[in-house]
C-alpha cells in the first residue's frame, strides 16, 4: 500500500485488509511524506504485521507504490490503495485463482465518498478485456485489483518509472500479459472509491494527445521486449 495524506479513509481500509491476513502475512506501507494523521492511524493498530517505510522527500505516486512493492517479502503480492475497501472474500478467491495462474485481476464496484454504489462493475464500465494486445491498446486493469506471484515482480523489475511514461500498475499489466498466465475474476471483490482527493486517476488518461499515446506504447513495447535478455 502506498499512502499520502490518506487519513480520512485509511482506518477502514486497513481493517478490511487485516481481517483477511494470516499471522505470517504482512501489510507493507510506503508513506510519501504525509502531513495529516496517516502515520498516527497506522501506528494505532499496533499490529506486528504492518511494516511502514517513510520516504525521504516526496517520490510521487508510482514511485511510492513501487517502494512498497519492493519491500514486500511474500511469495504472493496484493496491491492496495489507501481509500478502498476489500470485500471479505478477496484474498481467499485470489489465492485460489493463483493456483492456476501467475497474475490475477478481479472486478470492483465503483463507489462514491460515502460508499454509495456508482457502478456495479468496473469491468463493464471500462469494457475490460484480457490479453496483451487489448491492454497494449488501452490498459484496463486497476492496480488495486491485482494479485501476483513473486516471479512476476522479478521479471517486471527494475520498473522503468524514472521516465515518467508508464505507471507501476500499467507496467505490471503489460509484463504479465506478455510473459505470464493471467486470470480475470469476473466478480467484484473490492469497493473502489472515487472522490475529489484521489491520487490516482483510475485508468490511463483519455486526454493525452495521439502522439503521446503512440509514444507510450512504443516505449512500453521496447522495454518489455528487452526483458527477453534478462534472466
UniProtKB/TrEMBL annotation:
<dbReference type="InterPro" id="IPR029044">
    <property type="entry name" value="Nucleotide-diphossugar_trans"/>
</dbReference>
<dbReference type="GO" id="GO:0016758">
    <property type="term" value="F:hexosyltransferase activity"/>
</dbReference>
<dbReference type="InterPro" id="IPR001173">
    <property type="entry name" value="Glyco_trans_2-like"/>
</dbReference>
<dbReference type="Pfam" id="PF00535">
    <property type="entry name" value="Glycos_transf_2"/>
</dbReference>
<protein>
    <submittedName>
        <fullName>Alpha-L-Rha alpha-1,3-L-rhamnosyltransferase</fullName>
    </submittedName>
</protein>
<feature type="domain" description="Glycosyltransferase 2-like">
    <location>
        <begin position="1"/>
        <end position="155"/>
    </location>
</feature>
